[in-house]
Amino acid sequence: MRILVWHVHGAWMTAFLQGRHTYLVPVTPDRGPYGRGRARTYPWPDNAVEVTPVQLANAEVDVVVLQRPEELELAARWLRRVPGRDLPAVYVEHNTPRGQVPDTRHPFADRSDLVVVHVTHFNELYWDTGETPTTVIDHGVPDPGHHYTGELPRLAAVINEPLRRWRVTGSDLLPYFAACAPIDVYGMRGAGLAERLGLSRDQICDRGDVVQSVMHQELAHRRVYLHPHRWTSLGLSLIEAMMLGMPVVGLAATEAVQAVPRDAGVLSTRIDELVEAARWLIEDPRAARAVGMRARAAAVARYSVARFQADWDALLSQVTGLPPAGVSGRWGGNGYADAVVGTDPVSERPH
Q1: CA atoms within 13 A on the CB side of 320
Q2: What are the residue ranges spanned by the domains of the chain?
Q3: Are 2-140+304-338 and 152-302 equal in CATH topology?
């Protein structure tokens, strides 16, 4: 298939591009939010092809994968065809609802011309999509390998824009954990976090937005992965940390309670319990390694790219009427051959 899809979330997109399709990725001269083109910090395959808006006017497209409401108008203007009417379309909802939760209406509620694809069951449960058909396709994450050493008695967290998003990402909770171990915070726009929290840079260290492979190497040396997010869909960095073999301490909120089994970490809504768990794992490297091994096993089993691609192939085949293409060799494996493809993944129940 030839799939039009925007570069919005680099980690999700990296897994999405592993299928045996041609992916048309819009690019504009400024490489702004609606024309980023190919990623520069993720390993994308050659079948992700940059296309300009002018080229899209005459491009052959089998299906449009939307991820932001405004992309519907952009696609109609650039393709000179209306997604959902002139060609198949699906909308991927990456985010938890905001506003009057749980009554938040989805921007594509009550539509029959597309399918809304949620990335977590929590999102499907909480978004009100009315009569729009919906389905859930759990994340797929390329396995970075078991690299955990945990020799540094430090906590690690991945938080993008921790100052702007503050309570959403649980940035305000970090001092509780910094009392038992230093915290290395990775992600975009974290400069000044220690100062805002009134802590030293030894207690809260902003490691910045580093290349993914480098971040994985550095995370694996830290003893515990901290997931303080109050309201997030499901951070892919959490799954990546589990695949690295890191034990998890985090809030029992949104989809985290499904992603982290009880023996793979400690989740709670009580800060005192989480701080106690973090201290236990920091002080007991052997226990941390054992918990991390179980975290890795759980993440690899649930969030493989092979399963993710099988689910997407089934859905795209359903909405286009074209046969599924399978999964590429790089992230493939026997998991895809064992997957059930061709079933009806779309739920038509209202939300």
Answers
A1: 20
A2: 2-140+304-338, 152-302
A3: yes
CB atoms within 10 A of CB 212: 20
From 303, 221, 234, select the one nearest 267 (Cα to Cα). 234
Q: How far is CA 1 from CA 217, 218, 309, in A?
A: 35, 38, 13
Residues 7-52 have pLDDT tens digits of: 999 889 999 999 999 999 999 999 999 999 999 888 899 999 999 9
2-140+304-338 placed in CATH 3.40.50: yes
**How many other C-beta atoms lie within 10 A of the C-beta of residue 329?**
9
The closest alpha carbon to 22, from 49, 54, 57, belongs to 49
Comparing CA positions, the residue from 173, 278, 166, 105 lying closest to residue 267 is 278
Does the domain formed by 152-302 have CATH 2.30.30.20? no
pLDDT tens per residue, range 239-284: 999 999 999 999 999 999 999 999 999 999 999 999 999 999 999 9
Sign of CA dihedral 186, 192, 193, 198: positive
Q: Which amino acid is at 82?
A: V
Q: Where are the beta strands (DSSP E) in the chain?
A: 2-5, 22-26, 48-51, 63-66, 89-93, 115-118, 134-136, 152-158, 183-186, 204-208, 222-227, 248-251, 265-268
Q: Which structure tokens are listed for 346?
A: 């779309």
Residue 347 DSSP label:
B
How large is the average pLDDT for residues 116-133? 97
Q: For residues 291 and 263, give the distance between their C-alpha atoms in angstroms, rounded to a whole number.
A: 6
Cα angle: 121, vertex 265, 18; to 5 degrees: 50
What is the band of 326 on the pLDDT scale with cuts at 50, 70, 90? low
CA-based nearest residue to 210, from 219, 222, 201, 202: 219
- Please give the angle made by the CA atoms of 146, 171 and 138, to the nearest 5 degrees: 45
How far CA 277 is from CA of 175, 264, 284, 285, in Å, comes to: 15, 12, 10, 13
Compute CA distances 34 → 5, 6, 88, 95, 325, whole Å.
10, 7, 20, 18, 27
